[in-house]
Amino acid sequence: MKYTKPKTILLTAILLLTSCTPAENPPLPDNSLPPVSETSSETSLSDAQSTSAAPKKETELMTTTSKTPETAPPVSETTSEEEEIPVPPEAPGSVPDTYREDGENGIKIIGRNGHYMGLMGCWGTLELCGEYAEALNRAAEALPNTKVYNMVIPTSSEFYTPDDVTGFTASQKKKIDSISEGLVNVTDADVYSALSAHLEEPIYTRTDHHWQPLGAYYAAEVFSSAAEVNDKFPSLSQYTKVTKNGYMGSLYNYSKSANLYGDPETFTLYISPNDKALKTTYYDTAFKNGYESDLFVSRDAGAYYCSFLGSDDRIAEIKTDCDNGRTLVIFKESYGNALVPFLTSCFESIYVCDARYFDLNAKEFCESVGATDLLFAVCTFTPAGPNCSYVSELF
Fold this sequence. Notes:
It is a single chain. This protein is α/β, with parallel strands linked by helices. It has a domain at 124-242 and 268-392. It contains 13 helices and 15 strands. The protein has helices at residues 6-17, 47-50, 126-142, 156-160, 172-181, 191-196, 213-226, 250-255, 258-261, 334-337, 362-368, 381-384, 388-392, and strands spanning 64-65, 76-78, 100-102, 108-112, 115-119, 147-153, 187-188, 240-249, 265-271, 279-283, 291-293, 315-319, 327-332, 349-354, 373-379. The strands form three sheets. It has an eight-stranded mixed beta sheet with strand order 7-6-15-13-14-12-10-11, with helices on both faces. Strands 1, 2, 8 and 9 form a four-stranded antiparallel beta sheet that branches. It has a three-stranded antiparallel beta sheet with strand order 3-4-5. It is globular and about 55 Å long.
């Protein structure tokens, strides 16, 4: 068995198999863990590899460090609802686009638009992508009265890896296309094309493995069309925009790049237009012990990517003022969290469940809440890697 990129694959698995909780400065991955075998996108994992996954109850590694360099003090501001779109890119710095750095744990640091940008490779197999598509097909078959949708979200390395950086990541489009081709009675939301049209805008973070909420807005817009609720989908100017400077996320923690740490970015949060009408209740993973709270854990973006929903190891129930009789269930990992604030005007009820932290029968759950729509929203690593097993076990 060939082990070619164990650190990169292990790190990706650790970050994307775990959830978001407000803890600072995560430790580096334990080097004593066994290496994870790397395969190309055209090859298959062994049975042992394809079923390997982190424990469901493992605590999330935090995606931000809240410490801000003295040169970039935190600033919070809210813009008016007349914000022009498309959103311009971050103000250019002085880093040459030719800059290349090999950070720790397989993280690449590049220069882009005058700033340092961290990238995490995304590998996996087409065989697992096929298993993921079959799982969604089973969901559609099990729920004939529910519309089922697929959204596979490419990660930043798909779009921003320079041509001269080779052997670092594999084609995500090939995997996304193969999933789409394997779907039966499942509607595909093509967010790849939508994101491709906005690459010069801050749709991904430079310092974290997640996307920015702006990228999620464009993806949610595609889904609203696929679900035929686009007549209720608000324009970006209708959201309250809140920005927070000094954001430094997970890719610094794992790359340990002093250059990246010295070049923090801005995190931008968009508060839903109907925010005051929302009633959000959080339950445990067995849909018990509910307590009412807020969809937005932090309204000044101080929790950064955890600002909405907060943690993954729970089920969120969101009641809105949208009176269309539509109930949306979302199965996701942390990438799907950013979509939720952009869908609150389009569905009467929304249930957000993390596939990694779900202790119920998925079919019975969807039926019990009256799901008219079921969305699987995950980044490419999930269907192509170890997280696929979580989705496969749902239906």
